[in-house]
Task: inverse folding
């Protein structure tokens, strides 16, 4: 199970590696930058997208918690 914070942290770790590579290349005098490919670039979601994810994630956690608490044969002390 991945939490929002874990996913966000993982994205930052990947981005950090990419930044290090980019800085190394840009400081290399033999490197010639090129135009990036056309298309969409991924960014971390914000606003409504994050809200929808958090609502769905929380609802799933509550459902799972209720299921686990109401499992037959489980003793409650």
Result:
């Amino acid at each position: 199970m991945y939490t929002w914070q874990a996913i966000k942290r993982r994205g930052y770790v990947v981005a950090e590696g990419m930044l290090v590579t980019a800085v190394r290349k840009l400081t290399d005098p033999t490197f010639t930058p090129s135009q990036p490919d056309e298309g969409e670039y991924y960014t971390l979601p914000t606003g409504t997208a994050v809200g929808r994810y958090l609502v769905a994630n929380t609802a799933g956690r509550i459902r799972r918690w209720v299921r686990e608490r109401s499992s037959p044969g489980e003793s409650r002390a």
Q: What stands out?
A: The two ends are 28 Å apart (CA to CA).
